[in-house]
Amino acid sequence: IKMKNNLKKLAPTNTLDWYIKWVASLFLIAGVILTSNNIYPINLFFHAVGIFGWFIVSILWNDRALLVINAVSLALLINGMVAHYVK
């Protein structure tokens, strides 16, 4: 049985937002790997870079849901980093 592939990509590739979202996603994956191996506080920096990248993408896409979740997450991560280094 031969199946016809009618799936179309909705998002364009090789645009500024495409590069930012993939680099940011790689940073988030690295952050999760560092977290799962209990490598602290460097994991927070990887998460912060990834979340900041997605924050930029949310601005470019004008997506308020992504903007809120990434702004709040970034603020909480920065708070954690500051708290760690102020001790």
Search tags:
mainly alpha; 3 helices; 74% helix
Explain this structure to me?
- With 87 residues, the protein is mainly α.
- Helices cover 74% and strands 0% of the residues.
- The mean pLDDT is 91.
Q: What is the β-strand count?
A: 0
How does the overall form come out from the CA principal axes?
elongated
Oligomer: single chain
SSE ordering:
HHH
Beta-strand percentage? Answer: under 5%
Spatial gap, N to C terminus:
65 Å
Q: Helix/strand-derived class?
A: mainly alpha
The profile of the biggest β sheet is:
none
The average pLDDT is 91
Residue share in helix: over 70%
Radius of gyration: 17 Å
Low-confidence stretches: none
Structure annotation, total helices: 3
Task: Write a short abstract of this structure.
It contains 3 helices and no strands. With 87 residues, the protein is mostly helical.
